[in-house]
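Bench notes, afternoon.
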Amino acid sequence: MLIAQITDTHITPPAGPDDAKMNGRLQALETFVAHINGLDEKPDLVLHTGDVTHGGKPEYYDIVKSIMSALPIPLYCSLGNRDLGENLVAAMKDLGDAALVDGFLMYSIDKFPVRLIAMDTQHRERNIGTTCSVRLCVLEEMLKEQPNTPTALFMHHPPFKVTAASDPYQFQFDDPVLADAFLQLIRQHSQVVHMFCGHMHRQYGVQLETCYASCAPSLPADNRLGEFPPDLDGKPLYQLHRWNANTGRFETSLHAAVN
C-alpha cells in the first residue's frame, strides 16, 4: 500500500494573470497531478490533509476538482480550517469517498490493507484545531468496528506539539484537555498505527505513546515553512508513505513533484 500525501494547497481563483501567488499554487497542483501520472509505480491513493481551498466556496473546489480529476487513483480529503465541509463533500466525493456525520467530515476507507479514517479537527470559529464529545464518540465507534485491522487517521490539525515550530505555534489545539482526550482514545485502540496531519506547513514526525504521527509540508512553496535541501527549493513537495506489513509501520519519504 502506497499513499501520496499533499496538504495546505489553499486554492482560490487567481485575481488575474499577474496573481503570482495563486497562479503558482494552481501550477503546483497541476504539476503534482502530472508527476503522479508519470510515475512507473503509482500510489494507491492520494490523501489531502486539509486546507484544500482558502475559503471553502463551491467554485474554489470546482477548480481543484478540475485538476485532480485527471488522477487515475482516488483522492480522499480531510477538513482544514479554511475549508467548508458541505462544499468539500459535494465537489470531491466523486473522486473518493467522503461523508458528513452529525455535521462533521468523518468517514472510513476500507478498501486497502490499512484502514483509513478521516478525522474532523476544524474549530468552526478559529483557525486552531479542536475536537468534541460528538466527534470522539463517532471516532470511537468507527475504531470499535474493526479492532484488529491496522488503521491510520488523517486530519488537518495535529493534536500534539510540533517542536520544530517556534513558540507560540507549536501547539495548534484550542484546549490541551481535548487534545489529551483525543490521544487517550487513540491509546486505547492499538490498531491505530499512524496519524497523518497537515496545517503546520512543514515536515515533522514524532513517535507518540502507541503510534507514529507526522505532518506533511504544504504542497506549494509560497506558504511552506521549515528548511529543505536546496534542490527542493520552489518545487511542489509531497510525501510518500509505504506500508510495511512486517514492521507494522509506514515508511515515509519526501519528494518533489516535477514533470
